[in-house]
Design goal:
alpha+beta; single chain; 7 helices; two-stranded parallel ribbon; 13% strand; binds zinc ion; two-stranded antiparallel sheet; globular; Jann2411-like fold
Length: 199
């Protein structure tokens, strides 16, 4: 499975692959406010460090939990950013304007991101170690600001299934992605459309 593609479990127990298309939206699948609290997986800093190993940040350069240092206060800020991003991204995907208070949370989170470097011995790209919680927050917030303030915002979508709230950035060439996952909502739609055609 590609780095950044995640295996999710639906409330029904069904497993499916989901690619959020960018890091700041990938972070949303770690939990969220209100009804999403039951999906929470970031209970302590080590949970986030583990999760990051399979995230899109690890696509740029390998990220090992040993190189990540997250303080509890940083984790709280990352979760606040994440919960705010849920609201902002959903609002924008529905074609509406997010609240200024929410946008200020994103602005306040735009700290310096992790520093990439080249290993002097091998020339291979790395993250300067340790990668801090503040840098993780910065990476997500800077990406969110660039996304929301740029042309690609048109590609920020909510899954087209009525009962699915997953948000993603459509990175497909034609820009025609409608579903969180073809395996799940895309397939459910196909089956329902087929049933509707039966006499
Ligand atoms: Zn869906």
């Amino acid at each position: 499975m590609r780095v950044g593609t995640r295996l999710l479990t639906a409330a029904t127990g069904e497993r499916f692959r989901f690619d959020a298309g960018c890091f700041c939206l990938e972070l949303l699948i770690t939990g969220g406010p209100g009804p999403y609290q039951r999906y929470e997986i970031l209970h302590e800093p080590a949970d986030l460090a583990r999760w990051l190993e399979g995230s899109r940040l690890a696509e740029v350069a390998p990220l090992s939990g040993d190189d990540i240092r997250i303080q509890p206060a940083e984790l709280r800020r990352i979760k606040r950013f994440r919960d705010t991003m849920w609201s902002v991204a959903r609002t924008v995907a529905h074609g509406e304007r997010p609240s200024s208070a929410d946008l200020e949370v994103l602005n306040d989170s735009a700290e310096p991101p992790p520093r990439p470097r080249l290993d002097p011995a091998t020339g291979v790209r790395q993250w300067a170690s340790p990668v801090t919680g503040g840098q993780i927050l910065g990476a997500a917030a800077r990406e969110a600001i660039e996304l929301l303030g740029g042309d690609r915002v048109e590609r920020l979508r909510e899954c087209a299934a009525d009962d699915c709230q997953l948000l993603f950035l459509d990175t497909s060439r034609p820009g025609s992605r409608r579903w969180c996952s073809m395996q799940r909502c895309g397939n459910r739609h196909k089956v329902n459309a087929h049933r509707a055609r039966q006499p």
